[in-house]
Each structure stands twice: as C-alpha cells, then as structure tokens.
Amino acid sequence: MLAERLADALGADAVKTAPEDLAVYAFDAYSESRLPAAVVLPTSARDVAAIVRLARACGEPIVARGAGTGLCGGAIPAAGGVVVSFARMNRLLELDPRNRRARVQPGLINLDLSKKVAGAGLFYAPDPSSQKACTIGGNIGTNAGGPHCLTYGTTVNHVLALELVDDTGEVYTTSLDDAGYDLTGALVGSEGTLGIVTSAWVRLLRLPEATRVWVATFGDVEAASEAVSAIVGHGIVPTALEMMDGLMIRTVEAAFHSGFPVDAEALLLIENAGFEDDMDDCERAIEKICKANGGLTWRTARSQAERDGLWAARKGAFGAAGRIAPNTYLQDVVVPRTKLPKMLKLVDEAAAAHDLTIGNVFHAGDGNLHPLIMYDKRDKRQVAAVVDAGDQILSAAVDLGGTISGEHGIGFEKRDTLARIFDDADIDTMLRLRDVFDTGRRFNPDKIFPRGASCAELRP
Ligand SMILES: Cc1cc2nc3c(=O)[nH]c(=O)nc-3n(C[C@H](O)[C@H](O)[C@H](O)COP(=O)(O)OP(=O)(O)OC[C@H]3O[C@@H](n4cnc5c(N)ncnc54)[C@H](O)[C@@H]3O)c2cc1C
Fold it and tell me: What separation in Å is there between the alpha carbon of 68 and the centre of ligand 1?
C-alpha cells in the first residue's frame, strides 16, 4: 500500500492518513473539496523524488500544495491520490545581496521572504493580498500577481531559476543564465502540472527610497475608472492602483477603521515608490487627474503606520466580506483598462439579474477585476445564482476583449472555460508541452484542461 511505502521511505511522521488529517487537505479557498488518499510532508528534494517514484509505481496522482489559499481549486486533490504539502520546506536557503537574488524553498511564506531580506535593503515584489499566508511555491504555481504587480510585474518576472522533480523522480534545475529555452518561464503558472518545484532562485529589488500612498474618493465607480485610465494615459504608472466600490469601502471600514469615507461610492488606493525628489510632482499630477475626473476627496498618508493601515485594510477586504454573508465567491477576470466602466456596469447587471450582492475590490491599474459575490451556501437558489452570475461576468469580460483569469489561475474551477479563449489547436499544443514534462499526466490531473481534452487522440 502506498501510504505504508511512503512511511517506510520518509518516516511515519511525514505521512498523514487519519481522516481528520486528510480533511484538512481536501480543499483550498475554492468552494469544492475532494479527499486525498494520503498527505506527505517532505523536507528535501530527495524526499519529493522518492514520493514521485513511489506514487508512480502505485499509479497514484500527485498534487503539490503550498498554503491552500488558491481560489480556483488548484490544490484540491480532484482525482484523489497524494498531496505533497510544503509546510516543512519553508526556509530561505541562500541570500545573495550583491546580485539581488535569493534561493528559497517552496513552502516559504511570501511575506516572510520580504521580512527576511529587509535587513539587506531588499524586498520580493509580487505581493498577493494573501501574502501573509500564501507560499512562494504556490505563487510560482499560479504565477501570482498582487497590487504592486502593476509596476513590478507578476511572479514570472521575479523567478530566475527552478529546481524541480519530474514525473520519473529526477531532480532538475533550470538555467540561471539567460541561455537556451526559457523553461523557467514555461514552468511558472503551470499549476503543478509539469513538475514539483523544490526550490527557486528569485529576484529581489532594492527597497525604495520613498513611498507615498494616497486615497481618492469618487461619486461612482465609472468616474473612478475614468481616473484610472487617465492616470495611465498620462504616462504615469504608479506602483499600485487599486479600486473599491461603495459596498466594499463600508465593509472594510467597519472591519479596519482606517478612515475611508463611508459615504463615497468608489475609492482609489494609489501608491508610488521611488526617489523622494519625484514624489511631490507625482502627487500633484495624480491628484489633478483625479479631481478632473470627478474626484471628491484626496488624502495623503502621513506616516508608515498610516500607509500600513491602508494596505492592511485593502488586503483584508475579502475577509471583511464575512460581515455581509457567510460565503463568498471571488471571480477573477481581466478587461482592457478603458473597458472598466462598461465591465463594472455589467457586473451590476449580473447582480441585479440574479438577486445577489456583489462587491468590487480589485487591481484597477491592470484592468483585473475581482467581483466578490456574497451568498449563503445553505440556500440552493443562491448557489445556482452564484454559478450563473459568475459565468455571466466571465462571458462579459471575454466579450469585451478580456480574459478568464488575471492571476488566480484556471485550476479545477475554470478548466471547462479554457476553451472560450483557446481553440482545440491551442489546447493541443499546451497538452504536448505537458506531455514532455509529465508523460503519465500524473501531476495535478483534472486541472487547467477541459474535461475530455486529450491530444493523444488528436495525434497521428
Ligand atoms: C484573501 C485572498 C486574497 C488573494 N489575493 C491574491 C492576489 O492579490 N493575487 C493573486 O495572484 N492571488 C491572490 N489570491 C489567491 C492565492 O493566494 C494565490 O493563488 C497564491 O499564489 C496561492 O498560493 P498557495 O501557497 O496558497 O498555493 P496553493 O493554493 O496551495 O496552490 C496553488 C497552485 O500551485 C501549485 N503548487 C503549490 N506548490 C507547488 C510546488 N512546490 N510545485 C509546483 N506546484 C505547486 C498547486 O498544485 C496549485 O495548483 C488570494 C487568495 C485569498 C484567499
């Protein structure tokens, strides 16, 4: 039996099979769950290689898991099998401040990395709102973004090389040098379907000399959206440009008391980081654009504590929604920035058509919306309405020239909608790439690709 063989190889303490242990690993932040056959907690790449070889010998699927904060069911064991949890591989292995890079284990928590390198004047830029909990391995799996990715780019722009275990149990390292195919780029965002990452070289950035954070309020989300387009249209790319609608302002304020005006119907949280000498000009320019686009109030955070408080409120917004409803479903779509006003109207229409409450708090600068649908999963009507409304929003984004995921990934949730943006030939090409890395399709099956997609059938 696989669990016994795993315990022989890694020690009994590394393998969990008790129902109460398995239950903890049956779900992530998506709404569905599935029990694994076993959970394994490796402490080295060698352990991971042994797990892969044993699972392969027993014909069991393997699902890598970071913190399980993923919102598309990427870490749920959809086809059962073995969950490999990286909770015990969470160290900073090497810091190379001269070259501004670090080697980390996949289970290292995103925010912990920035804390650990701050003493060297450095930070790790991708900052998902879940950064207090999510791991670098999970971020690599989903190519995670975050508020500051507007300027700095997403995870793929910050991963230099990867050590990974392939489906035969071999350990490989992609090249740190910029030579040959960009295999690192192909692996980032592959949601655990191409291999299991056992360590990563990541790029670090110098902490900025100065940071300013501003809050601008508006009478409606359309005006705030116009301001977003105008700011970027003027050639200004702030480090972060986030939006909240009236419902979310009031919800977040009730939870965090960060001084957001509760009578506003839209708010932009704007940050710029760089040289102190540039800050006043930047502030004047953005404030002027906001006022020209219907801005009602303007606030400059005066201290680090105030800036931290505003960000804590923004990053805690999804948790604060628990005050409105016992369950939430977070959609993740992208539209061209200029289409934000139209898209937000369509989100409102979806809410009205399905008699649901939907809040909006999102990365406006990237055109990456996160309509947050509130519901009670004990109510069957609401559950069906949430599925329909989520789909209506997703279709609206595609119709506006956008796409089905900005940063959360495809996972289990959106596998059948992949075909709305890729045709059979595209999907076949992706499956061929998968087969190069994972010949038995044992890594995270039932994820990303539409049900029934199989390039083997299409091959001559
Ligand atoms: C409140 C909240 C706010 C969020 N905000 C953001 C945001 O701003 N931006 C954003 O991008 N996401 C956000 N997310 C989603 C989520 O936090 C990210 O997708 C994150 O990258 C997942 O990390 P994790 O460690 O929890 O990974 P998990 O959920 O455990 O796994 C995610 C995927 O990565 C794979 N994986 C994990 N470890 C490895 C490994 N070692 N090797 C190979 N594959 C691996 C898994 O198989 C899975 O497919 C948010 C989620 C929540 C709950």
Answer: 6
202 and 218 share one domain: no
Q: Which conformational region is residue 183 in: left (phi greater than 0), alpha (psi within -120 to 50 degrees), or beta?
A: alpha
In whole angstroms, what is the distance from residue 65 CA to residue 197 CA? 10
- Rounded Cα distance between 264 and 246, Å, is 6
137 lines ligand 1 (CB under 6 A): yes
Q: Would you say the CB of residue 229 lies under 6 angstroms from ligand 1? A: no
78 occurs within a structural domain: yes
Q: For residue 87, give the nearest of 35, 148, 24 by alpha carbon.
A: 24
> Largest Cα–Cα distance of the chain, in whole Å?
69
Q: Are residues 135 and 159 in the same domain?
A: yes
State the distance from the centre of ligand 1 to the C-alpha of 70, rounded, in angstroms. 4
336 and 431 share one domain? yes
Residue pLDDT tens, the chain, 460 long: 899 999 999 999 999 999 999 999 999 999 899 999 999 999 999 999 999 999 999 999 999 999 999 999 999 999 999 999 999 999 999 999 999 999 999 999 999 999 999 999 999 999 999 999 999 999 999 999 999 999 999 999 999 999 999 999 999 999 888 778 999 999 999 999 999 999 999 999 999 999 999 999 999 999 999 999 999 999 999 999 999 999 999 999 999 999 999 999 999 999 999 999 999 999 999 999 999 999 999 999 999 999 999 999 999 999 999 999 999 999 999 999 999 999 999 999 999 999 999 999 999 999 999 999 999 999 999 999 999 999 999 999 999 999 999 999 999 999 999 999 999 999 999 999 999 999 999 999 999 999 876 644 333 3
Same domain for 314 and 286: yes
Domain boundary among 303, 318, 333: 318
Domain span holding position 137: 92-206
